[in-house]
Design goal:
This protein has 67 residues and is mainly α. Helix content is 93%, strand content 0%. Helix 1 runs antiparallel to helix 2. The longest helix is centred in the middle third of the chain and has 43 residues. The two termini are 36 Å apart.
Length: 67
């Protein structure tokens, strides 16, 4: 029985590790999104179309990373 328990424990450990990596990537993507949005605001000032397009493109990348 201890062999099965060990495998279950390893499986849970790997699952937590994978979940942690996915969350880290999503957070990095979100940070990149925020940085890109800030840069667009600096460059565009009141340029609403460019800012909206940039947010849309970066937002899709964040959604894809968290899916």
């Amino acid at each position: 029985m201890s062999g099965i328990d060990g495998l279950v424990s390893q499986s849970q450990y790997l699952s937590l590790g994978i979940t942690s990596l996915v969350q880290q990537v999503a957070n990095e993507q979100k940070s990149a999104s925020e940085a890109a949005t800030a840069q667009l605001e600096k460059l565009g000032g009141e340029g609403g179309k460019e800012r909206k397009l940039g947010k849309h493109i970066v937002g899709e990348q964040v959604d894809a990373a968290t899916a």
